[in-house]
Design brief:
2 copies of one chain form a homodimer. With about 350 residues, chain A is α/β, with parallel strands linked by helices. Chain A is built from 13 helices and 12 strands. Chain A folds into 3 domains: about 55 residues, lambda repressor-like DNA-binding domains (434 Repressor (Amino-terminal Domain)); about 130 residues, Rossmann fold, CATH 3.40.50; about 130 residues, Response regulator (Rossmann fold), CATH 3.40.50. In chain A, the strands form 3 sheets. In chain A, strands 2-1-3-4-5-11 form a 6-stranded parallel β-sheet, with helices on both faces. Chain A has a 4-stranded parallel β-sheet with strand order 7-6-8-9, sandwiched between helices. A two-stranded antiparallel sheet of chain A has the order 10-12. Chain A binds a DNA duplex (30 and 30 nucleotides) through helix 3 and helix 5.
DNA sequence: GGGGCATACGTTACCGGTAACTTAACTCTT
DNA sequence: AAGAGTTAAGTTACCGGTAACGTATGCCCC
């Protein structure tokens, strides 16, 4: 199995159509017609060819077909920032499952939230002639944008809703989702509010949520008294220690908004561990509505987005476009604020 | 951007090496040499070619190179059961990140824990001439096994340690990990023990953990009084309601072993919600050691496996093999029992 | 009974690169 | 000054399929 002996092994066990045809005593064109069920051959010939296909274990080389330009590939390049964040794993699951039902494959790229990584990946994946690309985020480097335009293949930008996408876009309006949460928290009576998130080297959806959040809070008479942007990943433990940092530097904080549910959950655990009552002493709100919420006795105040559906929708739009259907270039899958019980809605 | 007009669009904006060469006034062989930095051309020529590469936005077509058989592809097919399970997402993250550092790409396949899905995916992905495959699990259909042998490419089987793998294997011994937990639970004094997991249509690692667990428990004088195998996914909520079912049908249960941490966490939440003291009234043990454990005040009794490292190791073994290095065909990355505080180790 | 027309093939060319070989123009020897 | 070696190219063939076209039968029907 190891390719120890390149010159011997490189072609040794790969059976080509030519070999099948020779074994069956027909031309490779006839064998090709049989395999593609194209007609123009006798039943006898079909049987002869299929016998050899089975006997030799022939597997077609799709590279050759695509390369020859007779059809496009069934690759869809999919870029995702990271899979440590459960929501992105769900998105990818939705994408790949849906693509699979159409006989397409995901070629994965983890871009670690950086445009340079994304650009490098785009360059590589385009060289494999994918049928289309699904990219997380609306921001791309100038070179990436140029390559995408030149590629002439469908592109779906997911996550951030993008009213003027490169091609197609599906997601939610993160500014609005932050805004709604800000308005909600102030409406139930919070004034001094903190934020705990992580910093990235580039504008992203979390930043837009924060922007929307701040605008709503300040517009409604509250104040975002402290914004903590950790140089860390947006998971449980940074939420935990970030909350400690926040409460040390701003002990008057009445409520904390987190970049996502994992961080919020870390914060919740920090607070209860310190003997603080949530939401009596402090309110906690996250974003994303993790599956773990389904078993929590205290429902986390959050914002629900169907990540699986988002992925599925992206894949569906891609497939529709590839089959020539008209596709709206911008699809909002919506979100739903979850009041939960980690903020106190009876402060008034 | 949409491929509306097939005959016009199919080739329209894809610049080939021939066009670059013509524009630069050289033969395509010379252009090829420049792009591969092969030498045998003047500095003047190099500049002329590179100018045209930039001007025309030329991207090489790797399909052609691989197809011509001059080098192997940089695709690695990666099959994963599902991404809803956080541990598999971590494995995939480890794989893809490591592959990325070598310039390789993952072609994903979500096999939903079924051998038939896996077989179908293997057939398809092999037609793309991947450089190698990384498969989750040691069980494959007969046809899949045959295709894998014929393919003549490296294969890494991950997750279950496999002493006689198809080619290479990396993972842990799940039987032993279940065995250790069984022995531990009996050693601290539990006798009537329950199990909550999910059922699959095929033998898998969770089944082996259960087998090891039962053997240890029974060998040490305890009893697995009830095994609940839900027809559901192995996540939080099934752990929650599965625990209810278990405790209704076997109220004498002193301790519950779960298929994984997500289910165990669901069970923990069910028990505390019902006013049961954990571990005072009932013990709870899981498997996998989820990241969320880092913020829990009560550490879940579990079994730690470095899933990210598992993925990285799999990718490293693949890369080592592809570069011709000798690779041990079986690598145990080990596990570590986490006593935690959801079982009572002072019952004696 | 010969022209028209399916049917069942075979032949050729091509996709975009690269290996292997060839060629033309220099440079350097002896 | 002729032969050898080097440099910078160009030419040809090939990978594994498929589109487009060519061709040899057999059959029917006026």
């Amino acid at each position: 199995m190891p390719p120890k002996n390149p010159e011997k092994n490189s072609k040794s066990n790969k059976v080509s159509l030519t070999e099948v045809a020779r074994a069956a005593g027909v031309s490779k064109m006839t064998a090709s017609r049989v395999l593609r069920d194209e007609g123009g051959y006798s039943e006898q010939t079909r049987i002869k060819v299929m016998e050899q296909v089975d006997a030799l274990g022939y597997l077609p080389n799709r590279l050759a077909t695509v390369f020859a330009g007779d059809q496009s590939s069934t690759f869809i390049g999919v870029s995702i920032p990271d899979l440590g964040n459960e929501v992105f794993a769900q998105v990818l699951e939705g994408i790949d499952r849906k693509l699979g039902t159409f006989g397409y494959q995901s070629v994965l790229g983890l871009t670690q939230h950086t445009l340079q990584e994304e650009e490098n990946w785009i360059r590589t994946v385009l060289s494999w002639q994918p049928a289309g690309l699904i990219l997380t985020g609306r921001y791309h480097s100038a070179r990436a944008t140029e390559m995408l335009r030149n590629a002439g293949i469908p592109v779906v930008e997911i996550w951030d809703l993008n009213s003027s996408p490169l091609d197609m876009s599906v997601g939610i309006n993160h500014f609005d989702s932050g805004f709604d949460m800000g308005r909600y928290l102030v409406s139930v009576g919070y004034r001094d509010i903190g934020y705990v998130g992580t910093s990235h080297d580039t504008a992203n959806a979390a930043t837009e949520r924060l922007n929307g959040f701040c605008k709503a809070v300040e517009g409604a008479g509250g104040a975002v008294i402290k914004q903590l942007c950790l140089h860390d990943t947006a998971t449980y433990y940074p939420g935990f220690y970030g909350t400690e940092q926040l409460l040390v530097s701003a002990p008057e904080t009445e409520c904390v908004y987190y970049q996502n549910d994992a961080m919020a959950f870390g914060g919740l655990q920090y607070c209860t561990g310190k003997g603080l009552d949530v939401p009596g002493d402090i309110g906690i709100a996250g974003w994303g509505d993790l599956p773990i919420a389904s078993v929590m006795s205290k429902r986390l105040t959050s914002c629900h987005v169907s990540h699986l559906k988002l992925g599925q929708k992206a894949a569906e739009m891609m497939m529709a476009r590839l089959s020539g259907e008209a596709v709206p270039n911008c699809t909002d899958i919506g979100f739903r604020l979850i009041p939960g019980s980690t903020v106190d809605n009876s402060r008034h």
